[in-house]
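User: Run a structure prediction on this.
Assistant: Running it now.
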Amino acid sequence: MSNTNAPRIMIDSYLEWLKTEGIPVTEDFGIDLFKVETKPWARLDVNAAAVHLKGRGDFLNMFLLDIPPTASTSPQQHLYEEVVYVLAGHGSTTIEVADGRKHTFEWGPMSMFAIPLNTKYRLFNGSGSERALLVSTTSLPVVMNMFHNEKFIFNNGWQFEERIGNSKYFAGEGDFIPVRPGNHMWETNFVPDLAAIELKPWSERGAGGTNIIFILADGTMHAHISEMPAGTYKKGHRHGADFHVMCVTGTGYSLLWYEGEQDFHRVDWQHGTVFAPPDQMFHQHFNTSSKPARYFATAYGSLRYPFTESKRKSLFGGVSTSVKLGGAQIEYEDQSPRIHQLYEEATRKNGVTIKMAEFIK
């Protein structure tokens, strides 16, 4: 006989809510999103799955949306932020703001956009023969655990008009905001092609790398994209949990390890692969393809609104400052010799010429 008077403790309101939604939940260290099983989700009226990475932290989750040909999601509105990346397919998004105006933009593979907080929106598959596959990183877990009230989150009429931004932000345009290498920002709501957007040099992270940080819908969600030239790899570093890393172009792998460990955990990646390094786990990214490799990362706590002290330190210099100086980065001269040996083996298999000589003395 169950004890109805048992104390209600240790509740994760997000996970309890997710059980009632009836969609599959995939959990792993690294995940190929193209292989995730989806099932009908009544809330959105399309097929979907929840994706939980081992390093997703306390604040974020992912939803994989599998929209059949000519189909669309039902109208949505919610009190959590959402950054969407298009894995496959072509379609459009319509966002309706408080005064009834609608912003519609068309997307394709490698497009990225943000839903301004608590605005009404729908996603439409523009193809009559192919599915559209999109993955969204959301702050639903922290919001659900903060308020633990479904109606408040999904049926809240408050309008955050300041989040809408300039109308050009829905047209693939934006504003470049110079800060310093590694922190230059592009403010927008929609990027048509992450493979084509111009990036800025960030020499501190190593080997001719470039990046740009996004400010999306004036939100607390962080997003950035980085690129490694062919034949190169980044320096190892660590930070708090919840950075969801997705390959956009190229192929390669990442090594992950905790301080003091002798063995590496390896994640091989290509377009559609996502992983999240757990809290304070060192990780290092390697391009093994013959062209530049780009990866897109989402997290909670933006450069504008860091939200936590951990993000404040990481995003403004911590991840590009040597551990010898109190930062979180391992310089090339301090890395294990095995790091470069493994890279030599990987590039040899792919017939790629290593271009690290000028960076590793």
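The domain at 13-167 is CATH 2.60.120.10 (Jelly Rolls).
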